[in-house]
Amino acid sequence: MLVMIREDFREILRLVRPGARVLDVGCGEGALLELLTREKEVDGRGLEISAHGVAACMARGLSVVQGDADQDLDHFPDKTFDYAVLSQTLQATRNPRHVLDELLRIADRAIVSFPNFGHWRVRWSLISRGRMPETKALPMPWWSTPNIHLCTLADFMALTQDLGVRVDASAAFAGNGLARAIDPTRALENWRSETCLFLLSRGTPAERVEPSAVSGDLLIP
Question: What is the annotated signal peptide range for this record (predicted)?
């Protein structure tokens, strides 16, 4: 049976090196963690706030604990993991700045993706309808969405600068299209990137990701 893999999951799979120690924060029912374990043979762990998600992960045979990213990342020792993954979850945290800071304390690198509130469809919805947008990246109405800290690509870049975080790779998705490499400093990308994905670190320039270590589809500054 053909199994469809989310395009952002494909990019994360390309970024993570085989056998790495990975923490998937907000892992849901474990689809990404299972993919990484099967395809890259990672030493994977998960942190998930919902009991339903934890139960689903355990049914898959995954090592997952129930916890809240806003509070429970603080309990992990420094550099426990090679990668900390936060896929489509940053905007649902109460303190995104603290969460991002903690990701790069407990892991050498963080992989973060989020819906870009600066995308042109979002802007057009606000201008034309005067209402909160509902798009593929933001499918739920404002009154039921878990998102409490939506941001634009430009906002996220400002946060990385504030934290002294380096962008090692970046990609964007729009509609049903494949991932494409972006220069996140270009203003145009804040208009046309529906969902953004970043590989982040705090290492020295000598530790930056080499082009051979990731897919050519991603931009390596």
Answer: none
